[in-house]
Design goal:
Oligomer: single chain
Shape: globular
Distance between the termini: 17 Å
Number of domains: 1
Radius of gyration: 13 Å
Number of helices: 4
Structural class: mainly alpha
Helix content: over 70%
Largest sheet: none
Length: about 100
């Protein structure tokens, strides 16, 4: 069964990559947004909590480091918070 919350998260990650490309011309943002969005979307669509856990964990770690080093909430802080929420949710679902 598809995870609607996980699919919403994946959509936000993809949208963020596209917005980063449109506003700043950042190909890394576009590629990372599409890659992580598709990975997390696949995990959410198939109900594979392990894939969603891994994708959100990596994204939380990377964006958390960017947020701490840059200090700007947008976009790194927002993606970190969302990823940490999905990570915690996935951990709960894996062990509950």
């Amino acid at each position: 069964m598809a995870d609607v919350v996980g699919l919403g998260y994946a959509f936000v990650v993809i949208l963020g990559g596209v917005i980063g490309f449109i506003k700043a011309g950042s190909y890394p943002s576009l590629i990372a947004g599409l890659a992580f969005g598709l990975i997390n979307g696949y995990g959410a669509h198939t109900g594979n909590n392990t894939i969603l856990l891994g994708g959100s964990g990596v994204l939380a770690a990377v964006m958390g480091m960017r947020f701490l080093s840059g200090g700007k909430f947008m976009p790194a802080g927002l993606v970190f918070v969302l990823s940490a929420i999905i990570l915690a949710r996935s951990l709960y679902r894996a062990f509950a």
